[in-house]
Design brief:
Blueprint: H1 6-23, H2 44-51, H3 55-58, H4 75-78, E1 85-89, H5 95-104, E2 109-114, H6 117-130, E3 135-139, E4 152-158, H7 167-177, E5 178-191, H8 197-200, H9 203-207, E6 214-215, H10 216-226, E7 229-236, H11 240-243, E8 256-264
Parallel strand pairs: 1-2, 1-4, 2-3, 4-5, 5-6
Antiparallel strand pairs: 5-8, 7-8
C-alpha cells in the first residue's frame, strides 16, 4: 500500500494527465512519463497496435483522440451491440468512446467520465470534430460516477482503475450504474508479485499505472463484494514486453502485467 494519501494521489494523477492533454503528446502506453523514459517517443498507432487495437479501429477515430495510452483493448471483450448505453471510466481524449460509438450505432449512447478537465475539453473537441453526437463527456471521479442508477449496459475502461486509491468504491459505483445483466469489460494492470516499497511509494510510478496495481485475488474480492458475478481476470503475459518500456531498468515487468477483466451484474 502506498504511503501517499488519496487526495495526493488524485492530484498527481490529475496533473500528469492534464499535462498530457495540454501538450498534445502521445506515449507508448502508461508509465511514469508519456515518452517512456529515455526512449524515442512511440507513435500512438504503434503503441495501440501493441495493445491489441486493429488498424481499422485506430484509423476510424478523429485525429488526436488516440494518445497511445493504456495497456490493452477493452473493445476486444466488450461485445458491444447496437443501441446499448456504454460508460468509459477514465475516457481521456475519447479514443475508446468513439470506438464504442462506432459499434453501438446512432441508437446507442456513450458517456465518457474523466476527472481531468483538460482531457474532457480535448475529448469534447474531438467529438465535435468527428460528428459523434451520441457521445458525451462528463467531469467526475470514477469512484463517484455522475451517472444515474441502472442506466448502462456496459462499462469499459483502459488502464484507469489501477490509478484509483479506492478501487472498492470504483467497483461499487460501477455496479450501481449498470443495469441488471449489465457487463464490465476492462483492460487494466494487475500485480503478479508484491511491489518493492520503493516502487509502491513513488508517486510518478503511481500516476504511471504501476504502483497502484492490485493483485488478482484482491480485485476478485472487491468485485465480488460489490455484487458482481461471472468474474474473469485473464493476465496477458505478452504485455510484459511493452510494460518493460514504461520504466526501463526498474524490472517492473516482474511485478505487473496487463489483464482483461470481465464481470456481470446479476439480473436479480
Amino acid at each position: 500500500m502506498s504511503k501517499q494519501k488519496p487526495d495526493e494521489i488524485r492530484k498527481a494523477v490529475r496533473e500528469n494527465y492534464g499535462a498530457i492533454a495540454r501538450s498534445g503528446e502521445s506515449g507508448c502506453g502508461c508509465g511514469p512519463s508519456s515518452c517512456c523514459g529515455d526512449q524515442q517517443l512511440v507513435q500512438p498507432l504503434e503503441a495501440s497496435a501493441r495493445m491489441g487495437y486493429s488498424t481499422d479501429e485506430m484509423t476510424s477515430v478523429p485525429d488526436g483522440a488516440n494518445l497511445g495510452l493504456g495497456c490493452g483493448n477493452p473493445q476486444a471483450i466488450a461485445n458491444l451491440k447496437p443501441g446499448e448505453t456504454v460508460i468509459d471510466l477514465g475516457s481521456g481524449a475519447g479514443f475508446d468512446c468513439f470506438l464504442a460509438a462506432n459499434r453501438i450505432g446512432s441508437e446507442g449512447r456513450v458517456i465518457g467520465v474523466d476527472m481531468t478537465a483538460d482531457m474532457i475539453g480535448r475529448a469534447r473537441e474531438n467529438a465535435e470534430k468527428g460528428g459523434y453526437w451520441n457521445v458525451e463527456f462528463r467531469l467526475g471521479e470514477i469512484e463517484h460516477l455522475p451517472v444515474a442508477d441502472n442506466s448502462a449496459d456496459v462499462i469499459i475502461s483502459n488502464c484507469v482503475i489501477n490509478l484509483s486509491p479506492d478501487k472498492a468504491s470504483v467497483f461499487r459505483d460501477a455496479f450501481r450504474v449498470l443495469k441488471p445483466g449489465g457487463r464490465l469489460a476492462v483492460s487494466d494492470v494487475v500485480a503478479t508479485a508484491e511491489l518493492p516499497e520503493k516502487i509502491r511509494n513513488d508517486m510518478a510510478m503511481y500516476s504511471g499505472c504501476i504502483s497502484g496495481a492490485a493483485s488478482i485475488d484482491n480485485l476478485q474480492k472487491m468485485m465480488a463484494e460489490a455484487g458482481f458475478e461471472n468474474i474473469s481476470i485473464k493476465p496477458k503475459n505478452e504485455s510484459r514486453e511493452f510494460i518493460r518500456e514504461w520504466a526501463e531498468g526498474s524490472r517492473i515487468e516482474d511485478y505487473v502485467v496487463s489483464a482483461l477483466i470481465e464481470a456481470v451484474k446479476p439480473l436479480n
